[in-house]
């Protein structure tokens, strides 16, 4: 028997004998597949002989025999379903060639073809969410331990690089560059279950799905992101994408932002920011700066009035960056209206209503007209998180801010925007969190009691004009945490270097490093 290892969970060989099963068992093989029809040669042991020997040692055996060049679609699908089990498989035929062929062809089938309705599926690690944090955690964990079985649960066919949408709205990126199919970003060796999570039974280590199935786990990572509550603003859903109302917080609307920016010649442009927490707290004002930069360069700013309605009491949460940002508010002649929360929009009459709270806590409704309205919607944890026992009183996943381990259930972890940690909800935060969670889970499987910690790092590249960015970087408590020396990038001032980083480098790092388990400047200490 000559074994050829294809990957960590797949090997092939020429014809095996019953005595070879012991070696396969020692190698961790859980499933044995025969791709050779009985009777091809006189000395060939029958499949039944092999199956009997395998089952005595606890190995499941399957017969998917085919003649060279005569592999059927049904056989291909059957083998694909075995691959979806995430168990260690060994396949054999006369020389191993047919087994390689069926593996290679089955491995190209869409991962969504894997069954999602079966009950009693079990994995070492289950990750809820195939967004940035979920995929990065899966990739980082595979980097540390290729023997663990991992499943990622997410219903969406689409995966997005959301930090790019600000640049789309500013006419810098093509929106298509921010999109991939989910099946194409799932790490090798990880199974994608295309379903929606409906609930958890943490005492039984089970996740419930909308197809009626359940998935069990040893370790669970919850990383579904947050929910954009468009319905939280009266009339908004009815007018999004028309009547001059747009948002860079949606893939299909960011191009409309740029269309409106190009077409607006005069009038009033309004930008809004809801109460915290939101993902990328700087994004609402990034839209303002890039729009104003275009209007300034095209000599239209003198005819456009800009207003920024911010539900918060400050322009930006880390004081050290405010002077630079205020200089651009003044440069673009924008009126800064703090403690104003968007409550209602009427696109037909181009009217917006805001709740204003004064210094004494008194509320009043402010009505204003607009020609251009960029909205950042209120945001919250997904409903299945808000309504489960794993959340805190505000509905966010309740975890330790350092280890990212759930406060009540030690085999549950969080990553990304869904947590109640005090960091900024940014892509940079997820990039730092994923290796922490992966390392801590790897330590659990290695019976290592030590834990690494996340320091609250977040980054917000504030695009104050086309070609310059204020690169805000900070940890818990708003402590500045610059990644680069001051001579290269002074983080409290706008620099061309930060623009190059945002426009040319970070997208490549996202697609080819973060989602691949390559932890450049993100590996935990």
CATH superfamily of the largest domain: FAD/NAD(P)-binding domain
What is the total tally of β strands? 27
- CATH topology category name of the largest domain: FAD/NAD(P)-binding domain
Radius of gyration: 27 Å
Q: What is the name of the CATH architecture of the largest domain?
A: 3-Layer(bba) Sandwich
Mean pLDDT: 92
Tell me the span between the first and last alpha carbons. Answer: 44 Å
Task: Describe, in plain words, how this protein is organized in 3D.
This protein has 525 residues and is an alpha/beta fold. Helices cover 26% and strands 25% of the residues. It has 14 helices and 27 strands. Helix 5 links the parallel strand 6 (121-128) and strand 7. Helix 3 (73-83) packs across helix 4 and helix 5 (132-144) runs parallel beside helix 13. The longest helix is centred in the last third of the chain and has 19 residues, at 427-445. It is elongated. Residues 112-119 have low confidence and may be disordered.
Question: How does the SSE layout of this entry go?
Answer:
Blueprint: E1 3-7, E2 10-13, H1 21-26, E3 31-34, H2 47-56, E4 60-63, H3 73-83, E5 89-92, H4 97-106, E6 121-128, H5 132-144, E7 150-153, E8 158-160, H6 164-169, E9 179-181, H7 182-185, E10 190-193, E11 197-201, E12 206-209, E13 214-222, E14 227-228, H8 236-239, E15 245-246, H9 254-263, E16 267-273, H10 283-297, E17 304-310, H11 322-331, E18 334-338, E19 340-346, E20 351-357, E21 363-369, E22 372-374, E23 379-380, H12 383-386, E24 412-414, H13 427-445, E25 458-465, E26 468-475, E27 479-480, H14 496-512
Parallel strand pairs: 2-5, 3-4, 3-5, 6-7, 6-13, 7-10, 13-24, 15-22, 16-17, 16-22, 17-18
Antiparallel strand pairs: 1-2, 8-9, 11-12, 12-13, 14-23, 19-20, 20-21, 25-26, 26-27
Helix pairs in contact: 3-4, 5-13
């Amino acid at each position: 028997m000559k074994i050829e290892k294809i990957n960590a969970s797949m090997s092939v060989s020429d014809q095996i004998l019953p005595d070879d099963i012991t070696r396969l068992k020692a190698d961790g093989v859980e499933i044995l597949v025969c791709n050779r029809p009985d009777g091809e040669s006189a000395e060939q042991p029958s499949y039944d002989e092999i199956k009997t020997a395998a089952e005595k040692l606890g190995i499941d055996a399957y017969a998917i025999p085919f003649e060279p060049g005569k592999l059927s679609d049904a056989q291909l699908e059957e083998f694909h379903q075995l691959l979806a089990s995430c168990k260690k498989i060994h396949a054999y035929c006369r020389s191993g060639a047919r087994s390689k062929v069926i593996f290679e062809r089955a491995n190209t089938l869409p991962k969504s073809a894997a069954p999602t309705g079966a009950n009693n599926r079990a994995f070492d690690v289950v990750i809820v969410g195939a967004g940035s944090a979920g995929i990065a955690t899966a990739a980082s964990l595979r980097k540390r331990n290729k023997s663990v079985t991992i499943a990622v649960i997410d219903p969406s066919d689409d995966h997005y690089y959301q930090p790019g949408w600000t640049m789309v709205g500013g006419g810098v990126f093509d929106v298509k560059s921010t999109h991939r199919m989910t099946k194409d970003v799932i790490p090798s060796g990880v199974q994608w279950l295309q379903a929606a999570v409906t609930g958890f039974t943490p005492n039984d280590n089970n996740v419930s799905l909308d197809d009626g199935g359940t998935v069990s786990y040893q370790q669970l990572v919850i990383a579904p992101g947050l929910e954009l509550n468009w319905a939280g603003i009266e009339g908004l859903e009815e007018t999004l994408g028309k009547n001059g109302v747009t948002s860079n917080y949606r893939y299909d609307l960011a191009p409309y932002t740029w269309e409106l920016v190009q077409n607006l010649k005069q009038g009033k442009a309004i930008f809004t920011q809801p109460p915290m927490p939101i993902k990328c707290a700087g994004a609402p004002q990034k839209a303002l700066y890039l729009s104003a930069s275009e209007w300034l360069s095209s000599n239209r700013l003198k005819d456009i009035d800009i207003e920024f309605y911010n539900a918060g009491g400050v322009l930006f949460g880390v004081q050290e960056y405010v002077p630079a940002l205020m200089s651009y508010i003044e440069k673009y002649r924008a009126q800064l209206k703090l403690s104003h929360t968007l409550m209602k929009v009427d696109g037909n009459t181009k009217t917006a209503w805001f709740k204003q709270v004064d210094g004494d806590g008194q509320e009043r409704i402010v009505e204003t007209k607009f020609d251009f309205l960029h909205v950042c919607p209120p945001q919250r944890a997904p409903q299945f998180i808000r309504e489960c026992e794993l959340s805190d009183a505000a509905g966010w996943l309740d975890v330790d801010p350092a280890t990212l381990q759930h406060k009540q259930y030690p085999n549950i972890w969080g990553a990304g925007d869904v947590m109640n940690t005090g960091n900024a909800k940014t892509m940079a935060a997820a990039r730092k969190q994923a290796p922490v969670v992966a390392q801590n889970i790897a330590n659990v499987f290695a019976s290592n009691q030590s834990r690494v910690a996340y320091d609250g790092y977040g980054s917000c590249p504030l695009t104050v004009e086309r070609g310059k960015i204020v690169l805000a970087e900070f940890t818990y408590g708003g402590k500045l945490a610059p990644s680069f020396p001051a001579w290269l990038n002074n983080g409290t001032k706008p620099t061309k270097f930060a623009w190059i980083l945002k426009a040319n480098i970070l997208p490549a790092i996202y697609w080819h490093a973060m989602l691949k388990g390559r932890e450049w400047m993100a590996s935990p200490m």
